[in-house]
Amino acid sequence: MWFFYMVAENAIHPSKWMKTDDAGLYCVPGDFYIDPMQPVATALVTHGHADHARAGHKRVFAHPQTMAIMTTRYGDDMAEVQIPVPYRESVEFDEVITTDSNSASTEQEQRKIKVTFYPAGHILGSSQLLIEYAGYRLVISGDYKRRHDPTCPPFEVVPCDVLITEATFGLPVFAHPPIEKEIQKLLHSLDVFPTRCHLVGTYALGKCQRVILALREAGYTKPIYLHGALLKLCDLYEREGIALGDIIPVSEVEDKALLAGEIVLAPPSALADRWSRSLPHVRAVLASGWMQIRARAKQRNAELPLIISDHCDWPELLQTLTEVNPSEVWVTHGREDALMYQAQKMGFKARALSLVGYDEAAQEE
């Protein structure tokens, strides 16, 4: 579906009022940051991953489930003021009048900056932010994906003039297979190696719960065993109404030999640490979009790499550009040059938006 918006003659382009500084992406007239990397007065948080959600802000606006994730991770006092914003609901900020030429109003005709939250399909509570100001609609995608995921609502196409999109997997080489195919690899491995404990490295928030539900959808009804670092967030998902089935902490299994032929989920770092040595005849499995790169799989000593990502692959990024159909695309978080070039070939204006403090290579995708 294609959408077109007419920009008013007196509109002010978002490049005049969206800036980056040491804290991150800043909306000047609204005086708020999006996913700031250091404590600020007002933060709008797209989702709960640690490279986007930090403690210490004075005010936080986020989807209620993102707020729950942040309090689970950082405590109830993670921000002085916590304002939950459900999907498709809006908050308005009074315009901060400045003396420079970038202000859209005078004191006599002060405008509002309207921000609406929409599903991003990345993890539980993940949101896109639509900012409406000075005649423009700007969407900040946050992290997102377009695939089926029973742990969160799907990505919603939001028409806009300017789209700020991530590009974590923004190279043509990244074309991720269906998650169902990757889960079948895991189940087949259990059949082939019935005496080996299959230790699956998976990020604690989002990926862990998605892998569990993908196993359930594939008909796997046996208990799934969890490293202690994954328990709190799985409990949160359960409280949010996402049933994960029979999950058991590894710490409750006295005889670890009983884990032969079972599936154990743990943080990726646990695959190489002393904790994993107590498990019987481990088969190292790693679930990540980066497993499409053989060198990455070898580097992480993954015997069974599973290509499972909570980000868009290359075809999905291009699908999103086509469906959103903005006038401009700003690219961040990853492979900026390739996606900018392709966006320009598709007829969009494109530029890079470099955010200080984000390092895609350090993310536990």
UniProtKB/TrEMBL annotation:
InterPro entries: MBL, Metallo-B-lactamas, RibonucZ/Hydroxyglut_hydro, Xnuc_lig_assoc. GO terms for molecular function: exonuclease activity; RNA endonuclease activity. This is RNA procession exonuclease-like protein. The lineage of its organism: Bacteria, Pseudomonadati, Pseudomonadota, Gammaproteobacteria, Alteromonadales. Residues 20-196 form the Metallo-beta-lactamase domain. Coiled coil: none annotated.
